[in-house]
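fold-stage: in
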Amino acid sequence: MENSPTQLGIAAFCTLAILNCLFLMVLLLKKRPYKSSADLFLALLLLAISLRVSKSIFYYLSPEISSFAISVGLMGKLAIGPLLFLYMKVNHSNKKLGGWDMLHFMPSFIAITTGWAMNLSALTLGYWSGTILLGIYLALSWKNYLSEKEPKPHNTASITKSFLVGVGLIWATFVFQIFSRGIEMYMLGTFIASLILYGLIFKVAVFTVKKTKTNGNKTALSRQKLERVKRLIEEHFTNEKVYLDSNINLNEFSKSIEQPAYVVSHTINQVYGKKFPEFVNSYRIKEVKRILLNQVLSDYTIEGVAYEVGFNTPSAFYNAFKKETGCSPKEFIGKEKDYSML
């Protein structure tokens, strides 16, 4: 049975979205202003969505597509959630990935290696399960985004929110397809998903262009501003000892020195190689070491000193102390006594 002009037109519209998506993916991987693992996950996320939507296009034009083609679409669908979640992990939670994180892609691996041998009922069950799994990953990704303590630059926050909303809407089209009746209603979901994909493509394209334009001035701006912000930070930490406040946070401190939070965070990261909480703790540990070395513990326990310099819990203090010095407070005191006897 031949496809009607309307069917071919809808398929062409959706296919064009896929082609633009793949082109942008290559741009992110090869042409981006600076490399980052976040860009990699963003590119792979576009690829995963493309694979899933492509399956729907083929199914619309020819319902008798092979099990292998269906399993490729299933692989893409099962990868969308993990890729979004890991993108949030590296870009907003600033966490490093480990080998265990690759286990998130185990369902996708199973789909592409065994899906071709499955019958239609098993593959359909896989698509339903994939929709539920994507919903879970989407909820976890939103949780990471909403719990973010250190604000990101406006452009970064904007692109992230766009993808969270976009993937959420695409997930809704998957749910719609599960409960839809008839190929035309099924394709309506694919058409809507393609429209959303066009929006994401536009957002990423604008984001990439802005990064390209600003990248040339990034070094010059850093040279002029980093030193000034560094002086402001050190003045407040050294002279005013703001680290003694147990409730100090990036937002409030940034307001106190009249600088954007992301500028303060970027400066501390570039100059000291630390995140804001680590930077604060480094000053607190210096103060603790000064007290320990001056042997003024007669009125305090070590935990009491920790509270005095701004730590909220003994465990946070001990962890920070060992990270900064490589030993416990008691070991530090013992070493200093040994040195003083030489």
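fold-stage: in (second)
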Amino acid sequence: MIFKKGFWKNSTIWYKLFLIICIKMIFMFILIKPLFFPNFMKTNFNSRDKKNSFMIKEITTTEDNKIDDK
């Protein structure tokens, strides 16, 4: 209880740290995510059936089968 009261209510630095964390999270999810992690399924497949068949193939195929196919 002492830690909770001392850290959350009496600390002015906590608010600054929380603000910095929020700004970083917004920056990561709004700006960086679309640049480095584009939507692969949306850009490479037009229909839902093609997306489904690709996902089923990727999920059910093991690494050993992928090596043998090459």
